[in-house]
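re: ur msg from earlier - yeah i can do the 2-oxoglutaric acid complex, just paste it... oh wait u already did. ok heres what im feeding in:
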Amino acid sequence: MGQRIVRVAKKLSADLIDELIHDEIAVVRIEGYYPAHLCNLLSHNILSSQDIDPYTHEVIEDEKLLQKYFGVDRIGIPFNSTYNTANPEAIHEYYRNASVQIERLRGYCEHFLSPIDKLRLELDELFIPGATVAHFEHKKMLAGIVRISRAEQSYLSASEPHFDALPPEYAQLDAQLAANIYLKVPDAGGELEIWDIPALTPLTQAPEQWRAQLPDPVKIKPSQGDLLIFNCRKPHAIGAFLGEDRITTQMFIGYQQEKSLLLWN
Ligand SMILES: O=C(O)CCC(=O)C(=O)O
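and the outut:
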């Protein structure tokens, strides 16, 4: 397994998006997508925020959908945190928070173009028939969450791979990608690890000790300002790291044939 599935480019293009969607490559890396001085401004404002909460991923265990914490914190509510909760308010809170978080991220950028807004515009300009913030239940979704990982807990994300796949009751997607822009990166470790096996279908139960059963992963060490877009239905993990916090801003990109790309968290 080599670096064949990682395409490195200076700019995003329609061809790169097509190659990702059709699983010809698993990862696109756009180097220096967002300038270092704006990454620093954003990171500073993010770390001063009062709105940081734990980020959980949905996993299936014994046919039950559970939320698991992998040592990543967040600003903004991910839709997946509303899937399996006894709290009927959770979904309403998600929708209420969506526009608040979009504006909050813009506020952190102090009115420079945010990395998520830049990506939203480029996806819309490049991809025929465009890209739009999703509305799975006739309400606009969030697009642009902040994810913060700290060195002390980074082993949690590293220990087991996970995958992200929207349940089909919200939208029947033909492919799901994740876009991450790296605002702050640790010196040692913190690679994105991705396993180039066929994309998993939504609601698949990942085996226990999954990492031990998978082939060697492809490892990509992002630099500050890089954009990585990858097929997030393939197992992936964040390598453990030392030193500084690791901060990204992230959104999912859903593909349905002949329709606009759907953007959400
Ligand atoms: O932070 C990363 O490198 C990957 C984040 C991730 O797991 C995702 O976007 O699904």
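cool cool. The longest strand covers residues 64-75. ping me if u need the other ligands too
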